[in-house]
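Subject: Protein record for review, amino acid sequence with backbone structure tokens
Why sent: The fold of this protein is of interest and is recorded here as tokens.
Notation: Tokens come from a learned vocabulary of local backbone shapes, not from coordinates.
Attached in line: The record itself begins immediately under this heading.
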Amino acid sequence: MKNVYVIYGENFEAINDYEKNIAKKYLKELDEFNYIKINMHENTLESLVYECRSSGLFGNEKVVVAENCNFLLAKPKKIRVEHNVDTLISYLDNISEEVVLILKVSEKIDSRKKLIKKIKEVGEVKEFSNFNEKEIASYIVKAVAEANLKISKDDAEFLVNYTRLDFANIKKELEKLLLYCDEKKVITREDIELLATRSLEYDVFSLTNELFGKNYLKLRVVYNSLVLKKEEPIFLLSLISGQLRIYYKVKVLLNEHYSQKDIAKELGVHPYRVQLAAQGIRNYSVNKIMKTLILAANYDKLLKSSYMDKYLILDLFINKLIEELK
């Protein structure tokens, strides 16, 4: 274990997890005397170094976390406190072996700074970018295993797709699922559909999927749930149009003999969505799918210019789509 860390980046949830893991590994128990947090917007580097040098109440081993380390940025923001970076560099030359110092900031640091170069020599500098869908799914599988439960890779990816949430909120959904499934020791797709927050994007994805699969009763159920949520019809139509464009592009690329994996990469969408799109459009031509896009464009104009009830226009659009794809 190192005595000094710089952890930074957009993924503050992952940064906080990493900080806690370091603290738990180093200290037997965490308390206010051995796990100290200092806000560097309000405290000087002299105060930070003093804390690192001073003895603890019940022992010398402690973790000191410096938050909002503005002085690590290429262009530090103006704050009330002035930081003398040489104070920290001097500390690193004679570092306390019983203290783990963690410097945190939520933006990209300037690696050219003398201080950063010094920390790289004696400690660790680690960046945490926002997770992509695959990385979040991998995290879910690992977190569930650590809680002595199981979830398949497919169902972890389904949870990401179903909720369309960021990492922090996915963790909250996972807490619910772990609690609910604790006795049976496995999380299934049915559990996710029962407990997790379904995203608007997933509803639109389901609607389009049921449309191309000619499951009109299920389509109506999904559509009615969208209307009940009182989502703006123009916004809903734009989401449906976006999904139709994906179906069109998938069809074109399949005709050009792209694999589903390559299509997912090309379009920047999840492979699961490409797989379902490929199944749905199997019996439709490129021209037929293009007609749905033309319909969407026509109804978009109607929604924006007509005095008719907007939900009625959206309903007419859905009926026209069904008619076109029959």
Q: What stands out?
A: The chain is about 60% helix and 10% strand. Strands lie at 4-8, 35-39, 62-67, 99-105, 124-127. The CA atoms of residues 19 and 102 lie 7 Å apart. The two ends are 64 Å apart (CA to CA).
